């Protein structure tokens, strides 16, 4: 995964990791790291085995899509205002 080094990404990276110096190191060096390290840092919510076939994203998306669009949109707006 790559991150574009814009103002929002860099500020958010510090917030996610809770470690300003690590955010600087990652931004300045573009150091590669494993999926396990990404999970430990909070950059991904879950690491699954099996590559693309093991990813639960499609199942999650189907579950969200089955809900009321009004409720999903309202929830996104509320969560966005707190981030």
Structure commentary:
- The chain is mainly alpha-helical and 83 residues long.
- The protein folds into 2 domains: 47 residues, no CATH class; 36 residues.
- Helix content is 61%, strand content 0%.
- α1 crosses α2.
- The longest helix is centred in the last third of the chain and has 14 residues.
- The chain is flat and about 40 Å long.
- The mean pLDDT is 80.
Question: What are the SSEs and their pairings?
Answer:
Blueprint: H1 7-17, H2 20-29, H3 35-41, H4 57-65, H5 69-82
Number of domains: 2
Helix content, binned percent: 55-70%
Principal-axis shape? flat
Topology order in helix (H) and strand (E) letters? HHHHH
Tally the beta strands: 0
- Biggest sheet: strands, sense, closure? none
How far from one another are the termini? 21 Å
Summed up, what is this model?
This protein is mostly helical.
Q: Which properties best describe this structure?
A:
2 domains; mainly alpha; 5 helices; flat; 83 residues
